[in-house]
Amino acid sequence: MAAQNHSLIKITNLTKSYGPKLILKDINLEIKENEFFIILGPSGCGKTTLLRILAGFEKCQTGEIYLANQLLNHIPPNLRPLNMVFQSYAVFPNLTVYDNIAYGLKIAKTPKEIMDEKVKAMVDLVDLKQQIHSKPEQLSGGQKQRVALARALVMKPKVLLLDEPLSALDAKLREHMQNELVHLQKNIGITFIMVTHDQREALSMADSLGVINEGKLIQVGTPESIYENPKNQFVANFVGRTNSFEATLIEKKKQHDVVEINDLTRFKIKSSGFALNETLKIFIRNEKIKVSLKPPKSKKDLVVVKAKIILKNYFGYQTQVKFLAGKITIASYLKNAREFQENQVVFLAWSIEDILILK
Amino acid sequence: MINFSRLFLTKITFLLTLIFLYFPIVILVLFSFNDSKRNIVWKGFTLKYYFKLINNQDLIEAFLNSIVIAFMSTALSVILAVLCGYSLWKLAKKKMALSSAYEGVLALPIVIPEICLAIGFLVFYQEISWPQGLVWPLNLMSIIIAHVTFSFPFATMIIRSKLNTFNLEIEQGAIDLGATAYQVFKNFILPHLNPAIFTAIFLSITLSLDDFIITFFTSTPGVVTLPVKIYSMVRFSITPEVNAASSIFIFLTLCTAFLGLISYQVYKKNGRPKS
């Protein structure tokens, strides 16, 4: 779309505290138009508070929020051109599906014919035609969710805010709704800002995501950039499944440095900015580890470790395997682990390219 | 065997409880049909004391007074209770200082001995020289005001605790869609409170109908309610007429409770949210 790079929401130096407790620290964030933006973080990190500040239900102590260059800070929540889907859906229990969806339009005193048309179009969009005159108590979780979505979307908001909208659904429905939400967002072209603690959900759904921890916005970027190049240890551990090792830089040469994974193995890396004898943390994604019964033929650009299988966890579509190499536990996920047994000695190999080294 | 004996004991206990609770009332009602001037031995069935009551102008007047007082004080106390319960809820939600103290102060009239409250009112009305000898139903105002003060805390407690079950995200969802605080109150909070309002109404009516002590102390000369009238009849002698008046009174209270139950059931059937 043409307006892709236009920044729609701009948050500058936002700080929020409850009494002495700092919830959000100096948040700076820009969200583009028509983007599916996801705020990702562990529970209690302040992500929902950020969303509620955007919606207007919480006030921030410092900082400004702009929506298309309009300062939002002092606009009450009922007048903000943003709508929200709540975690509990907050479907109005005393109104039918139709009246739930029509509620905002009624408040805005929309003429009856136009309202009727809009509500019916929305009911079609979220596939609730059968339930249009049902009361919320007759609806399933997924249907309530869609009422909440329709009720917000019918207002044609500039931005739709979603507070962990999928967390109450069972696994299968959840996957279905993930696809549906992404599809919907692309179809109607409204900016979505969603909060979640589920990194898989975030990676698969977002155009762009921001990782928050302990009230700080740590990294913003595309799912790929965050997964492949996490900025710090927290992001590396929180997004995706990762093995981490203590390591030391033991040699510094002209062409390369040598890193030792403590008590296990050593390997060469390109000259880095780390100092000699500096303690480092090494990360390798679980799925990047290859397992074989024999050592690989060529060890070029590979780290190879001998290890014993200590645990096999069968999940159906994949198997989690844990290894003990020296004193270090390493985990990996294999599509097919039939040839491996517990207590077997195997060789683990991963490419030096896939290694992430952080201070 | 053990099961049987346990069940047997339970039944006996239940029966004894029923007797303990209702025996005096059953006797009272039975003896209202007793064909004897002195209400000691059963002499035969009659309805004549009921007919006597219907022709007793004073009693009819007392009965009407009781009804008017009950309805007026209930209307006032429930309206106040909704407003007050809502305010207390808002205060508690905003974690305002002293919000629980306010709730305590409101509940105080419930624990204050009724006789103290009654004397308090008596002194109060004397101090401000409350006008006496007003026309009906204005002459009931002193009683109505007093009744509001003791039924209103109960009503507030019912409303307030019902508000605790209100999902705050409903309120925020409505605000998010553009609703003002008034619209949220009208469209969602009031419908949520409806069952509690029913309960509060019928509790207030029964409390007001039943009250003797406070009514006795706050009534202006010449104003009599049903309980006060029955009391004054007892002072001469316990005749079957007193029994009949009491029976009618019991019937009236039961009707109120029954009506409350029925209207609540009907209301629930009409697809309203479950409480």
Report on the architecture of this protein.
The complex is a heterodimer of chains A (359) and B (275). Chain A is α+β, with helices and mostly antiparallel strands and 359 residues long. Chain A contains 8 helices and 20 strands. In chain A, helix 2 crosses helix 3, helix 2 packs parallel to helix 4 and helix 3 crosses helix 4. Chain A is elongated. Chain B has 275 residues and is mainly alpha-helical. Chain B contains 11 helices and no strands. Chain B is globular. Chain B starts with a helix and ends in a 6-residue tail after the last helix. The C terminus of chain B is likely disordered. The chains are: A alpha+beta (359), B mainly alpha (275). At the A-B interface, strand 6, helix 2 and helix 4 of A face helix 7 and helix 8 of B.
Give the tags:
heterodimer, A: alpha+beta, six-stranded mixed beta sheet, five-stranded antiparallel beta sheet, B: 275 residues, mainly alpha, globular
Weakly predicted, low-confidence segments of chain B: 271-275
Give the termini distance of chain A in whole angstroms. 40 Å
- Helical content class of chain B: over 70%
Q: Report on the biggest sheet of chain B.
A: none
Rounded to an integer in angstroms, the radius of gyration calculated over CA atoms of chain B is: 23 Å
Query: What order do the strands of the largest sheet of chain A run in, or round the barrel if closed?
Result: 6-7-8-3-9-10
> Element order, helices and strands of chain A?
EEEHEEEHHHEHEHEEHHEEEEEEEEEE
Biggest sheet character of chain A: 6 strands, mixed
Most residues in contact: chain pair: A-B, 27 and 21 residues
Number of strands of chain A: 20
Main structural class of chain B: mainly alpha
